[in-house]
Specification:
2 domains; single chain; binds pyridoxal-5'-phosphate; Aspartate Aminotransferase, domain 2; 15 helices; 460 residues; Aspartate Aminotransferase, domain 1; 38% helix; four-stranded mixed β-sheet; globular; 16% strand; 16 strands
Length: 460
């Protein structure tokens, strides 16, 4: 064997080109440019393959998007077939079959009050569109509602990276620097029980958690257009599930005080939490629903904002009344992405994805129990196929590791050596595999995670 096979050379060239020209998202590029990087070339099922022929289990579904495995033949075929017919045509002034068909399917899939679908390309835009629609809805209703101008958002929330979505976000690390550019919102505490914002302990803490929220709605509902929330579990905020009953109660309060409920299911949608949508856990009907990530099974960018007929109708009128929703993106309703999304939904029924998932969720819960053996594990949180393992220096006091120790990052490097790709949220190790993962693969993923946390902790 020579020490430089042709594929090796390709990797080296590509890596060099990357380091000279690319700027990666959410990445300290100094660190990136100084360390060796993987060049991913191929994906099949739950595995990604790099240019050196190494194979990795995709433990975070390529940023939470992949559902049925990479390059699933049914979705690939649907995209190919669509590509031979029509690549792209605009929804501004025209329509196309995949967009109309997908809108129909999404309306069937979601609560009965949601009857209208607005497409865009990313989770951030789907949320931003819901905010703008809600705001304009109150303008359309007339002068009496002029005071409704702001939104309620939860601490530690994440809704994407465009300025509107950042305005309703609450992850200090990502959002703080942009604060002067953002519109003001009303912030309420999220029940992050491991680090309770109110310093409460179970069993009676849930009630207190919504008290401040209720108080805000009671006293300020005349200023509030709507409330934005990630249903059942916060994702990027660290995989933090809500206490049981919280979402249902929250929804009831929004109705009682006449403010919109905007659910951001960008991360939780399409089976992630064990149900097709997370809102099903508590039978909630939102006024707006934002979908993205898993909508195309993780193949192409697409997002959707759904809303009710009542809200939609407030935008109807003569052109010169200027009630239209003046918002759109070039690739809104892209036929390739919509064809992929239709195929994604077909695979759900063909492969009985949700039925098969239930046993795997229980298996994951059991397998995760072993994590508590590791002294640096402070908390283990899970809802369906969204799991987070929070690492701390001291479990008793939940004292975090110093930021410079890069514990989460170290675990990821250890896991990579063992053939599993992960991406942490600070020092919370995230496990979020494709729903199609098998039990033996799930077992490997959890074992590798355990060993990687142990190895990272023992370093130094
Ligand atoms: C990822 C995410 C977003 C942003 O989606 P993008 O497609 O990355 O813009 C918004 N909300 C939640 C809950 C998310 O997890």
């Amino acid at each position: 064997m020579t020490d430089s096979s042709p594929t090796d050379r390709t990797e080296t060239d590509l890596e060099r080109l990357d380091k000279q020209t690319l700027w990666h998202p959410f990445t300290q590029m100094k660190e990136w440019m100084e360390s060796p990087q993987l060049v991913i070339e191929r994906g099949r099922g739950v595995y990604l393959h790099d240019t050196r022929g190494r194979k990795y289990l995709d433990g975070v579904s390529s940023l939470w998007a992949n559902i049925h495995g990479h390059s699933h033949p049914h979705i690939v075929r649907a995209i190919r077939r669509q590509l031979d017919r029509l690549d792209h045509s605009s929804l501004l002034g025209l329509t196309n079959a995949p967009a109309a068909q997908l809108a129909g399917k999404l309306v069937e899939l979601t609560p009965p009050n949601l009857t209208r679908v607005f497409f865009s390309d990313d989770g951030a835009t789907a949320v931003e569109i819901a905010l703008k629609m809600s705001f304009q809805y109150w303008r359309n209703r007339g002068r009496r509602w002029d005071s409704k101008k702001t939104f309620v958002a939860f601490s530690n929330a994440y809704h994407g990276d465009t300025l509107g979505s950042v305005s309703v976000g609450g992850v200090r690390l990502f959002h703080e620097v942009f604060r002067p550019l953002l519109f003001p919102t009303i912030r309420v505490p999220y029940p992050y029980c491991y680090r309770c914002p109110l310093g409460k302990q179970p069993p009676n803490c849930e009630i207190d958690q919504l008290q401040e929220f209720e108080q805000v709605l009671r006293t300020r509902h005349r200023e509030i257009c709507g409330v934005v929330v990630e249903p059942m579990i916060q994702g990027a905020g660290g995989m933090v599930p809500m206490p049981k009953g919280f979402l249902g109660k929250l929804a009831e309060l929004t109705r009682r005080f006449g403010v919109h409920l905007i659910l951001d299911e960008v991360a939780t949608g399409f089976g992630r939490t064990g149900r097709m949508l997370a809102l099903e856990h508590e039978g909630v009907q939102p006024d707006f629903l934002a979908l993205a990530k898993g909508i195309t099974g993780g193949t192409l960018p697409l997002a959707a904002t759904l809303t009710s007929e009542e809200i939609f109708e407030s935008f109807l009128g003569e052109y010169e009344e200027f009630k239209s929703f003046f918002h759109g993106h070039t690739y809104t309703g892209n036929p390739l992405a919509c064809a992929a999304a239709l195929a994604n939904l077909e695979v759900f029924s063909k492969e009985k994805t949700l039925q098969k998932l239930q046993g795997k969720i229980r298996y994951l819960t059991k397998a995760l129990r072993r994590m508590w053996e590791l002294p640096c594990v402070g908390d283990v949180r899970q809802l369906g196929f969204m799991a987070g393992i929070e690492l701390v220096r001291d479990r008793g006091s939940s004292q975090p590791f110093p930021v410079g120790r890069r514990m989460g990052h170290r675990v990821v490097l250890q896991a990579r050596r063992r053939g599993v790709l992960l991406r942490p949220l600070g020092d919370t190790v995230v496990l979020m595999p494709p729903l199609s993962i098998t039990r033996p693969q799930l077992k490997t993923m959890v074992e590798v995670t355990y060993n990687s946390i142990q190895a990272a902790w023992e370093e130094e």
